[in-house]
Amino acid sequence: MTSGWTLLDHAHEALRTVVGHVPADAWELPTPCADWNVTQVLQHAAGDQIGYAAFLTGEPGPDENPFAPSGTLPADPVAYAEDAMGRAARAWAGVDRAAGEVPVPMPPNKMTPELGAGACAMDAAVHAWDIAVATGQPSPLTPELAAGLLPVARQTAEAVRGFAFGPALAPEAADDDIATLLRYLGRDPHWSRP
User: Fold this and answer.
1) What angle in degrees, to the nearest 10, is found between the helix axes of 113-134 and 177-184?
2) Distance CA 88, CA 121 (A)
3) Does residue 69 contact residue 40 with C-beta atoms inside 8 Å?
4) CATH label of the domain that carries residue 134
5) pLDDT at position 30
6) What are the C-alpha distances in Å from 44 to residues 98, 105, 112, 167?
7) Does residue 20 fall inside a structural domain?
8) Residue 58 domain-assigned?
9) Dihedral (CA of 61, 65, 69, 75) sign
10) Are 180 and 146 in contact (CB under 8 A)?
11) pLDDT tens, the chain, 194 aa long
């Protein structure tokens, strides 16, 4: 299922690929989200995708608080992620692109359709990166995806600093769009497992 929003579809593909390649023994590994392991980042990412769908359609939200993930690994992590992304994709596919604004779970809880779909994409893509680097996979962030997400990050992240995103890290001269995006969202682009 695709959403019809290019940025979101690419972000979903990034998350899908990364979750599908997590080794069976890697779900408890630490991640760039300091308090969460790989399972918890998966739960958070899936819960956020369901949250976007729920805001758009009025359907039920996630079963647990995405910001307090239990750490209980779903029986089929790939199917779990796929269900969440499918719900978000179906919801965004039904959005009128000409609408002035749509409801979203991220403050201020209303955004233009393009910005809202971008925020949903940013969440999926950045958490795909978190899971990838925690489990020794290549970064799923392409230069094109990062370049598309940077304007979204700059328009949305400040409202949730200290809650959803940490303080921005200082940029470095050699940063490309991927590193710039990650630093802006409080992540060290060179993070490695302790």
Assistant:
1) 100
2) 10
3) yes
4) 1.20.120.450
5) 98
6) 30, 13, 24, 19
7) yes
8) yes
9) negative
10) yes
11) 899 999 999 999 999 999 999 999 999 999 999 899 999 999 999 999 999 999 999 999 999 999 999 999 999 999 999 999 999 999 999 999 999 999 999 999 999 999 999 999 999 999 999 999 999 999 999 999 999 999 999 999 999 998 888 899 999 999 999 999 999 999 999 999 88
Whether 127 and 32 have beta carbons less than 8 Å apart is answered as: no
The pLDDT of residue 111 is 97
- Can you name the residues that pair with 102 across neighbouring β-strands? 111
Residue 68 located in a structural domain: yes
Whether 113 is covered by a domain: the verdict is yes
Q: How far is CA 152 from the centre of its chain?
A: 12
Task: Give the structural domain span for 18.
Answer: 6-142
State the Cα–Cα distance between residues 120 and 106, nearest whole angstrom: 9
Closest by CA to 132, choosing from 144, 140, 124, is 140
Of 84, 79, 78, 82, nearest to 64 by C-alpha is 84
pTM: 0.97
Q: What is the pLDDT of residue 163?
A: 83
Find out whether 42 and 131 touch, Cβ atoms under 8 Å. Answer: yes
Beta-bridge partner residues of 161? 165
- Burial label for 174, CB within 10 Å (0-12, 13-18, 19+), is exposed
Number of structural domains the chain divides into: 1
Strand partners, 30: 37
Residue 33 near residue 130, CB atoms below 8 Å: yes
